[in-house]
Amino acid sequence: MILAAGQGTRVRPLTQDLPKPMVPILGKPVMEYLIEHLARYGITEIMINVAYHHRRIEEYFGDGHRWGVSIGYAFEGVREHGDILPRPKGSAGGMKAIQDFSGFFDETTLVICGDAIVDLDIGAALHEHKSKGALASVVALEVPDDQLQNYGVVVADDDGKVQFFQEKPTPAEAKSNYASTGIYLFEPEVLDLVPSGVEFDIGSQLFPLLAEKGLPFYMQKRFFNWIDIGRVSDYWSVLQRVLRGEVAEMQMPGKEVKPGVWVGPNTSISWEGATIVGPVYIGSSVRIEPGCTVIGPAWIGHGCHLRRGATVVRSILFEYTRIAEAMAFSEMIVSPRYCVDRTGNTNYIGDDRCTLRWGDARG
Protein backbone atom coordinates (compact mmCIF):
# COMPACT_ATOMS: atom_id res chain seq x y z
CA MET A 1 0.00 0.00 0.00
CA ILE A 2 1.46 3.33 -1.07
CA LEU A 3 0.01 6.36 0.70
CA ALA A 4 -0.39 9.15 -1.85
CA ALA A 5 -3.58 11.05 -0.95
CA GLY A 6 -2.06 14.06 0.83
CA GLN A 7 -1.87 17.59 -0.56
CA GLY A 8 1.80 18.21 0.25
CA THR A 9 1.12 21.65 1.68
CA ARG A 10 4.57 21.94 3.26
CA VAL A 11 6.19 21.58 -0.17
CA ARG A 12 4.21 24.36 -1.84
CA PRO A 13 4.62 25.78 -4.43
CA LEU A 14 6.09 22.55 -5.86
CA THR A 15 2.74 20.83 -5.29
CA GLN A 16 0.44 23.52 -6.69
CA ASP A 17 -0.26 21.52 -9.83
CA LEU A 18 0.79 18.00 -8.94
CA PRO A 19 0.62 15.62 -5.97
CA LYS A 20 3.73 15.31 -3.82
CA PRO A 21 4.64 11.77 -5.02
CA MET A 22 4.91 13.19 -8.55
CA VAL A 23 7.57 15.81 -7.69
CA PRO A 24 10.48 14.97 -10.03
CA ILE A 25 13.95 13.75 -9.10
CA LEU A 26 16.28 13.44 -12.12
CA GLY A 27 13.23 13.77 -14.34
CA LYS A 28 11.30 10.92 -12.67
CA PRO A 29 8.56 11.15 -10.04
CA VAL A 30 9.62 10.30 -6.49
CA MET A 31 7.09 7.46 -6.41
CA GLU A 32 8.56 5.82 -9.51
CA TYR A 33 11.78 5.08 -7.62
CA LEU A 34 9.66 3.57 -4.85
CA ILE A 35 7.73 1.30 -7.21
CA GLU A 36 10.98 0.17 -8.84
CA HIS A 37 12.34 -0.71 -5.38
CA LEU A 38 9.22 -2.68 -4.46
CA ALA A 39 9.41 -4.60 -7.74
CA ARG A 40 13.02 -5.56 -7.03
CA TYR A 41 11.79 -7.35 -3.90
CA GLY A 42 9.06 -9.20 -5.74
CA ILE A 43 6.17 -7.05 -4.52
CA THR A 44 3.83 -7.14 -7.50
CA GLU A 45 0.40 -6.16 -6.09
CA ILE A 46 0.26 -2.50 -5.13
CA MET A 47 -2.65 -0.34 -4.03
CA ILE A 48 -2.28 3.44 -4.08
CA ASN A 49 -4.76 5.73 -2.33
CA VAL A 50 -5.15 8.98 -4.26
CA ALA A 51 -7.06 12.22 -3.85
CA TYR A 52 -5.27 15.50 -4.66
CA HIS A 53 -4.64 15.73 -8.45
CA HIS A 54 -5.30 11.98 -8.57
CA ARG A 55 -5.27 11.80 -12.37
CA ARG A 56 -1.62 12.87 -12.50
CA ILE A 57 -0.69 9.68 -10.64
CA GLU A 58 -3.16 7.38 -12.39
CA GLU A 59 -2.29 8.53 -15.91
CA TYR A 60 1.46 8.24 -15.34
CA PHE A 61 1.57 4.83 -13.63
CA GLY A 62 -1.49 3.23 -15.23
CA ASP A 63 -1.85 -0.46 -14.39
CA GLY A 64 1.86 -0.75 -13.53
CA HIS A 65 2.84 -3.21 -16.26
CA ARG A 66 5.86 -1.10 -17.31
CA TRP A 67 7.40 -1.86 -13.92
CA GLY A 68 6.30 -5.50 -13.83
CA VAL A 69 3.69 -4.87 -11.14
CA SER A 70 -0.08 -4.61 -10.90
CA ILE A 71 -1.33 -1.27 -9.55
CA GLY A 72 -4.79 -0.44 -8.28
CA TYR A 73 -6.15 2.90 -7.06
CA ALA A 74 -8.51 3.93 -4.29
CA PHE A 75 -9.86 7.42 -4.95
CA GLU A 76 -10.67 9.45 -1.83
CA GLY A 77 -12.87 12.34 -2.86
CA VAL A 78 -16.15 13.39 -4.47
CA ARG A 79 -17.41 15.22 -7.54
CA GLU A 80 -19.53 18.23 -6.62
CA HIS A 81 -20.88 20.89 -9.02
CA GLY A 82 -18.45 19.73 -11.69
CA ASP A 83 -15.38 19.91 -9.45
CA ILE A 84 -13.33 17.01 -8.09
CA LEU A 85 -12.83 17.60 -4.38
CA PRO A 86 -10.23 15.54 -2.50
CA ARG A 87 -11.45 14.11 0.80
CA PRO A 88 -8.69 11.91 2.23
CA LYS A 89 -9.86 9.28 4.72
CA GLY A 90 -6.63 9.23 6.73
CA SER A 91 -3.84 6.70 6.24
CA ALA A 92 -5.59 3.94 8.23
CA GLY A 93 -9.09 4.98 7.14
CA GLY A 94 -8.08 4.65 3.51
CA MET A 95 -6.84 1.11 4.11
CA LYS A 96 -10.03 0.21 5.97
CA ALA A 97 -12.17 1.44 3.06
CA ILE A 98 -10.22 -0.81 0.68
CA GLN A 99 -10.53 -3.75 3.05
CA ASP A 100 -14.28 -3.23 3.43
CA PHE A 101 -14.64 -3.01 -0.35
CA SER A 102 -12.57 -6.00 -1.45
CA GLY A 103 -10.64 -7.64 1.38
CA PHE A 104 -7.42 -6.74 -0.46
CA PHE A 105 -5.27 -6.81 2.69
CA ASP A 106 -5.65 -10.54 3.31
CA GLU A 107 -1.97 -11.19 4.13
CA THR A 108 1.04 -9.35 5.53
CA THR A 109 1.08 -5.88 3.99
CA LEU A 110 3.86 -3.34 3.60
CA VAL A 111 2.61 0.24 3.94
CA ILE A 112 4.85 3.06 2.76
CA CYS A 113 4.53 6.79 2.10
CA GLY A 114 4.74 7.76 -1.56
CA ASP A 115 6.86 10.87 -1.04
CA ALA A 116 10.19 9.38 0.10
CA ILE A 117 13.07 7.55 -1.54
CA VAL A 118 14.28 4.50 0.36
CA ASP A 119 16.62 1.55 -0.13
CA LEU A 120 15.29 -0.52 2.77
CA ASP A 121 16.07 -4.25 2.75
CA ILE A 122 12.41 -5.27 2.63
CA GLY A 123 13.23 -8.97 2.93
CA ALA A 124 15.08 -8.43 6.22
CA ALA A 125 12.28 -6.23 7.57
CA LEU A 126 9.67 -8.86 6.73
CA HIS A 127 11.78 -11.61 8.33
CA GLU A 128 12.09 -9.66 11.60
CA HIS A 129 8.35 -8.90 11.58
CA LYS A 130 7.50 -12.58 11.18
CA SER A 131 10.11 -13.91 13.61
CA LYS A 132 8.79 -11.69 16.41
CA GLY A 133 5.21 -12.69 15.75
CA ALA A 134 4.35 -9.02 15.29
CA LEU A 135 0.86 -7.83 14.53
CA ALA A 136 2.35 -4.52 13.43
CA SER A 137 5.90 -3.22 12.91
CA VAL A 138 7.15 0.32 12.38
CA VAL A 139 10.55 0.85 10.75
CA ALA A 140 12.51 3.55 12.54
CA LEU A 141 15.75 5.35 11.88
CA GLU A 142 18.01 7.10 14.38
CA VAL A 143 18.17 10.86 13.80
CA PRO A 144 20.27 13.61 15.41
CA ASP A 145 18.87 15.55 18.37
CA ASP A 146 18.44 18.75 16.37
CA GLN A 147 16.12 17.00 13.89
CA LEU A 148 13.78 15.28 16.35
CA GLN A 149 11.21 18.07 16.25
CA ASN A 150 10.57 17.27 12.57
CA TYR A 151 9.40 13.69 13.20
CA GLY A 152 7.20 11.35 15.13
CA VAL A 153 9.46 9.67 17.69
CA VAL A 154 9.04 6.00 18.64
CA VAL A 155 9.72 4.85 22.22
CA ALA A 156 10.22 1.10 22.71
CA ASP A 157 11.49 -1.27 25.39
CA ASP A 158 14.67 -3.36 25.15
CA ASP A 159 12.86 -6.02 23.11
CA GLY A 160 11.65 -3.44 20.62
CA LYS A 161 8.02 -3.53 21.77
CA VAL A 162 6.52 -0.08 21.24
CA GLN A 163 5.53 1.74 24.44
CA PHE A 164 4.34 5.08 23.09
CA PHE A 165 4.91 7.82 20.50
CA GLN A 166 5.94 11.45 20.75
CA GLU A 167 4.86 13.79 17.97
CA LYS A 168 7.68 16.19 17.02
CA PRO A 169 9.19 16.59 20.51
CA THR A 170 11.93 19.06 21.38
CA PRO A 171 15.32 17.46 22.07
CA ALA A 172 14.76 18.00 25.81
CA GLU A 173 11.35 16.28 25.71
CA ALA A 174 12.34 13.36 23.46
CA LYS A 175 12.53 9.92 25.11
CA SER A 176 14.15 8.36 22.05
CA ASN A 177 16.21 9.25 18.99
CA TYR A 178 14.29 6.92 16.69
CA ALA A 179 11.98 8.53 14.15
CA SER A 180 9.16 6.74 12.35
CA THR A 181 9.97 6.56 8.64
CA GLY A 182 6.38 6.03 7.54
CA ILE A 183 7.18 2.41 6.64
CA TYR A 184 4.97 -0.18 8.34
CA LEU A 185 4.21 -3.90 8.23
CA PHE A 186 0.70 -5.02 9.17
CA GLU A 187 -1.11 -8.29 9.62
CA PRO A 188 -4.75 -8.28 8.39
CA GLU A 189 -6.09 -8.34 11.97
CA VAL A 190 -4.78 -4.80 12.54
CA LEU A 191 -7.55 -3.39 10.36
CA ASP A 192 -10.17 -4.87 12.70
CA LEU A 193 -9.18 -2.06 15.09
CA VAL A 194 -9.94 0.65 12.52
CA PRO A 195 -13.54 1.92 12.42
CA SER A 196 -15.30 2.00 9.05
CA GLY A 197 -16.45 5.17 7.35
CA VAL A 198 -14.40 7.67 9.37
CA GLU A 199 -11.09 9.46 8.93
CA PHE A 200 -8.47 7.52 10.88
CA ASP A 201 -4.70 8.03 10.98
CA ILE A 202 -2.01 5.38 11.41
CA GLY A 203 0.48 7.41 13.44
CA SER A 204 -1.76 9.46 15.69
CA GLN A 205 -4.67 7.02 16.21
CA LEU A 206 -3.95 3.42 15.23
CA PHE A 207 -0.48 3.16 16.74
CA PRO A 208 -1.44 4.57 20.17
CA LEU A 209 -4.35 2.11 20.18
CA LEU A 210 -2.01 -0.83 19.49
CA ALA A 211 0.37 0.29 22.25
CA GLU A 212 -2.46 0.90 24.72
CA LYS A 213 -3.84 -2.60 24.19
CA GLY A 214 -0.40 -4.14 24.65
CA LEU A 215 -0.59 -5.97 21.33
CA PRO A 216 2.56 -7.35 19.63
CA PHE A 217 3.62 -4.06 18.08
CA TYR A 218 7.34 -3.65 17.45
CA MET A 219 9.84 -1.06 16.30
CA GLN A 220 12.55 -2.15 13.88
CA LYS A 221 15.84 -0.27 14.10
CA ARG A 222 17.34 -0.25 10.63
CA PHE A 223 20.14 1.57 8.87
CA PHE A 224 19.22 2.54 5.32
CA ASN A 225 18.87 5.58 3.10
CA TRP A 226 15.60 7.35 3.83
CA ILE A 227 15.22 10.54 1.85
CA ASP A 228 12.09 12.27 3.05
CA ILE A 229 10.84 15.25 1.05
CA GLY A 230 8.84 16.95 3.77
CA ARG A 231 9.74 20.55 2.96
CA VAL A 232 11.07 22.61 0.06
CA SER A 233 14.47 22.72 1.78
CA ASP A 234 14.48 18.89 1.81
CA TYR A 235 13.76 18.77 -1.91
CA TRP A 236 16.62 21.14 -2.71
CA SER A 237 19.00 19.17 -0.46
CA VAL A 238 17.95 15.83 -1.98
CA LEU A 239 18.63 17.03 -5.51
CA GLN A 240 22.03 18.35 -4.48
CA ARG A 241 22.90 14.91 -3.04
CA VAL A 242 21.56 13.07 -6.08
CA LEU A 243 23.42 15.27 -8.55
CA ARG A 244 26.64 14.70 -6.60
CA GLY A 245 26.13 10.95 -7.03
CA GLU A 246 25.62 10.26 -3.32
CA VAL A 247 22.41 8.21 -3.71
CA ALA A 248 22.64 4.66 -5.08
CA GLU A 249 20.45 3.42 -7.95
CA MET A 250 19.80 6.96 -9.21
CA GLN A 251 21.69 7.34 -12.46
CA MET A 252 22.10 10.59 -14.34
CA PRO A 253 20.27 10.56 -17.69
CA GLY A 254 21.73 11.83 -20.94
CA LYS A 255 25.27 11.56 -22.32
CA GLU A 256 28.32 12.66 -20.34
CA VAL A 257 29.99 15.04 -22.79
CA LYS A 258 32.72 16.07 -20.37
CA PRO A 259 33.46 15.15 -16.74
CA GLY A 260 30.40 15.89 -14.62
CA VAL A 261 28.29 17.36 -17.45
CA TRP A 262 25.43 15.27 -18.88
CA VAL A 263 23.41 16.45 -21.87
CA GLY A 264 20.20 15.33 -23.52
CA PRO A 265 19.59 15.37 -27.30
CA ASN A 266 18.89 18.42 -29.44
CA THR A 267 20.62 21.13 -27.40
CA SER A 268 22.09 24.46 -28.45
CA ILE A 269 24.90 25.29 -26.04
CA SER A 270 27.65 27.87 -26.46
CA TRP A 271 30.43 25.59 -25.22
CA GLU A 272 33.12 28.15 -26.07
CA GLY A 273 31.26 31.17 -24.72
CA ALA A 274 29.65 29.69 -21.59
CA THR A 275 31.10 28.41 -18.31
CA ILE A 276 29.63 25.08 -17.18
CA VAL A 277 31.02 23.37 -14.08
CA GLY A 278 29.54 20.00 -13.08
CA PRO A 279 27.82 18.11 -11.81
CA VAL A 280 25.21 19.45 -14.21
CA TYR A 281 22.43 17.87 -16.25
CA ILE A 282 21.20 19.78 -19.31
CA GLY A 283 17.99 18.42 -20.76
CA SER A 284 16.84 18.10 -24.35
CA SER A 285 16.10 21.19 -26.43
CA VAL A 286 17.87 23.46 -23.92
CA ARG A 287 19.46 26.64 -25.26
CA ILE A 288 22.39 28.25 -23.40
CA GLU A 289 23.67 31.49 -24.92
CA PRO A 290 27.22 32.93 -24.77
CA GLY A 291 28.28 34.51 -21.50
CA CYS A 292 26.15 32.19 -19.35
CA THR A 293 27.48 30.46 -16.24
CA VAL A 294 26.13 27.22 -14.78
CA ILE A 295 27.72 25.94 -11.56
CA GLY A 296 26.63 22.56 -10.24
CA PRO A 297 25.11 20.67 -8.71
CA ALA A 298 22.44 21.92 -11.12
CA TRP A 299 19.57 20.49 -13.16
CA ILE A 300 18.42 22.31 -16.31
CA GLY A 301 15.12 20.72 -17.40
CA HIS A 302 14.19 20.13 -21.02
CA GLY A 303 13.17 23.13 -23.10
CA CYS A 304 14.87 25.70 -20.84
CA HIS A 305 16.53 28.84 -22.21
CA LEU A 306 19.37 30.73 -20.52
CA ARG A 307 19.81 34.09 -22.20
CA ARG A 308 23.14 35.85 -22.62
CA GLY A 309 25.00 36.47 -19.36
CA ALA A 310 22.58 34.49 -17.15
CA THR A 311 24.00 32.70 -14.11
CA VAL A 312 22.59 29.57 -12.47
CA VAL A 313 24.34 28.27 -9.35
CA ARG A 314 23.38 25.08 -7.46
CA SER A 315 19.81 25.38 -8.71
CA ILE A 316 17.03 23.38 -10.33
CA LEU A 317 15.24 24.68 -13.41
CA PHE A 318 11.99 22.90 -14.22
CA GLU A 319 11.18 22.33 -17.89
CA TYR A 320 10.57 25.31 -20.19
CA THR A 321 12.00 27.89 -17.81
CA ARG A 322 13.61 30.96 -19.37
CA ILE A 323 16.21 32.90 -17.38
CA ALA A 324 16.42 36.53 -18.52
CA GLU A 325 19.60 38.19 -19.73
CA ALA A 326 22.23 38.83 -17.01
CA MET A 327 20.00 37.46 -14.25
CA ALA A 328 21.64 35.41 -11.45
CA PHE A 329 19.80 32.59 -9.68
CA SER A 330 21.62 30.90 -6.80
CA GLU A 331 20.39 27.92 -4.74
CA MET A 332 16.87 28.16 -6.11
CA ILE A 333 14.15 26.04 -7.67
CA VAL A 334 12.72 27.83 -10.71
CA SER A 335 9.69 27.10 -12.87
CA PRO A 336 8.01 29.19 -15.60
CA ARG A 337 5.55 30.49 -12.97
CA TYR A 338 7.50 30.80 -9.72
CA CYS A 339 10.92 30.63 -8.11
CA VAL A 340 11.58 29.45 -4.59
CA ASP A 341 14.81 29.60 -2.63
CA ARG A 342 16.21 26.69 -0.64
CA THR A 343 14.40 27.81 2.54
CA GLY A 344 10.97 28.02 0.90
CA ASN A 345 10.64 31.75 0.20
CA THR A 346 8.63 32.06 -3.00
CA ASN A 347 8.27 34.69 -5.71
CA TYR A 348 5.75 34.48 -8.53
CA ILE A 349 6.08 35.69 -12.08
CA GLY A 350 4.87 39.25 -12.50
CA ASP A 351 5.55 40.34 -8.92
CA ASP A 352 7.07 43.82 -9.33
CA ARG A 353 8.67 43.57 -5.89
CA CYS A 354 10.97 40.81 -7.13
CA THR A 355 14.17 41.98 -8.84
CA LEU A 356 14.69 38.62 -10.59
CA ARG A 357 13.40 38.19 -14.12
CA TRP A 358 12.45 34.84 -15.63
CA GLY A 359 9.54 33.33 -17.53
CA ASP A 360 8.22 30.63 -19.85
CA ALA A 361 10.60 29.60 -22.63
CA ARG A 362 7.58 28.76 -24.80
CA GLY A 363 6.40 32.38 -24.74
Give your account of this protein's structure:
By secondary structure, this protein is an alpha/beta fold. It contains six helices and 32 strands. The radius of gyration is 22 Å and the shape is elongated. The mean pLDDT is 89.
Low-confidence stretches: none
Helix content: 10-25%
Radius of gyration: 22 Å
Termini separation comes to: 41 Å
Mean pLDDT: 89
Structure annotation, total helices = 6
- Tell me the structural class: alpha/beta
Give the oligomer, counting copies of the same chain as homo and different chains as hetero: single chain
Shape call:
elongated
Kindly report the spatial arrangement of strands forming the biggest sheet. Answer: 16-17-20-23-26-29-30-31
β-strand number: 32
- Residues in β-strands, percent: 25-35%
Helices, strands, pairings?
Blueprint: E1 2-4, E2 24-25, E3 28-29, H1 30-40, E4 45-50, H2 54-61, E5 70-75, E6 77-80, E7 83-86, H3 91-102, E8 109-113, E9 116-118, H4 122-131, E10 136-142, E11 152-156, E12 162-167, E13 178-186, H5 202-212, E14 217-221, E15 226-228, H6 232-243, E16 255-258, E17 261-263, E18 268-269, E19 275-277, E20 280-282, E21 287-288, E22 293-295, E23 298-300, E24 305-306, E25 311-313, E26 316-317, E27 321-323, E28 328-330, E29 332-334, E30 338-341, E31 346-348, E32 358-360
Parallel strand pairs: 1-4, 1-8, 4-5, 10-14, 17-20, 18-21, 19-22, 20-23, 21-24, 22-25, 23-26, 24-27, 25-28, 26-29
Antiparallel strand pairs: 2-3, 6-7, 8-13, 9-15, 10-13, 11-12, 16-17, 27-32, 29-30, 30-31
